[in-house]
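Re: that chain you flagged

S.,

Sorry for the slow reply, it's been a week of failed gels. I finally had a moment to sit down with the sequence you sent. For the record, here it is as I used it:
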Amino acid sequence: FSLVPEEMRDLHRSRRDKTVAEQTMLPPVEQTRLRLDGSVVDVETIATYIEWEGKPGYLGVMRDITQRKQAQRQTRETERRYSAVVEHMPGAVFQRVLAPDGTLSFTYVSPGIFDILGYSAEEIMSDGRQMVDCLLPDFRDEYFSLINDSAQNLTPLDIELPLRDIAGTPRWVR
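Prediction finished late last night. Pasting the structure tokens below so you have them in one place:
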């Protein structure tokens, strides 16, 4: 146990005991281990039942996930900064996805959409048709044509469109 930190020892024992008692393989789990120099390293461990020289045992495999954990921390920090900007700016920011079948969905919508359309970001992300339904009918074909062109040519889409908010009030957005 010299490489297993004190706070991880119960988990280590319980996984070992379960593996042997149930003669099974356990799914990977993130843990920490101690290096020979005493520093802590993030690892992913997996344990499986084996028989060794006719006796029950277990085989444990560790994989260093330090870089993955660091990338996850950096991603969370980037997302936090992005959210701090877009959630407090006037207007709305959104990310839309156009599926091959022509279905439009919104994978991200900032809270500012409520001030523009009267729908919450969650409502639009759960049902993208609400955003499309806000487009005035005369402009829907043009909108989808421009989205298709943008997707095919991998170019930004910068247009002004007339919408109606949840109360029916007309609004122009860019």
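What I noticed first: The mean pLDDT is 91.

Talk soon,
D.
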